[in-house]
Amino acid sequence: MLPSAFRIVKARHADTAFDGEGARVAGGRWNSPGLPVVYTAGSAALAALEILAHVGSTNLLTAYVLIACAFDRTIVLRLDRKRLPRDWRAYPARPELQLVGDAWLKDGTSAVLEVPNAVIPSESNLLLNPRHNECGSIGLGAAEPFEFDLRLLRS
Asked: pTM of the entire structure?
């Protein structure tokens, strides 16, 4: 198994980075509040862009870690991108997208759902269902310090 996805989180959250609680509390593009899911990106660079897209201030970009995870492709379901509404990248996200993710989580179809990334649509995010019985087969790497390049932090 090679690293298949990456997650960047505040270092203080490294131990719980894969429990899905943040998304359960707040909801996200692909899940409603109340349903745990772990959002990962197909590359470390894409994970960094996701942080940059969501953080309100460059002052908050300190003390992060990068965690790689690996899994067999057989536990991944790829979302048919043709099913998405034309404006699926809108912010805030359309509620229909949460319905897609909610159905996947509730049905337990797979441990991982591959969805398009809203920042770079040709790239993918991989959603992990922490309640799926095959989620235990996902290997987690060690949390490694991650520093954002200062050129990205210019205002």
From this structure: 0.94
pLDDT digits (tens, 9 = 90+) for 80-111: 999 899 999 999 999 999 999 999 999 999 99
Q: Could you identify the residue written with the tokens 């269902």?
A: 129
Separation between Cα atoms, residue 133 and residue 146, nearest integer Å: 30
Higher-pLDDT residue of 149 and 144 is 144
Alpha helices in 34-78 (DSSP H): 44-54
CB 75 within 8 A of CB 1: no
Which pair of tokens denotes residue 35? Answer: 């349903």
User: Which ranges in 1-155 belong to alpha helices (H)?
Assistant: 21-26, 44-54, 95-107
Domain boundaries, the chain: 3-153
Q: Which fold has domain 3-153?
A: Diphtheria Toxin; domain 1 (3.90.175)
Among candidate residues 124, 105, 84, the one with its CA nearest the CA of residue 27: 105
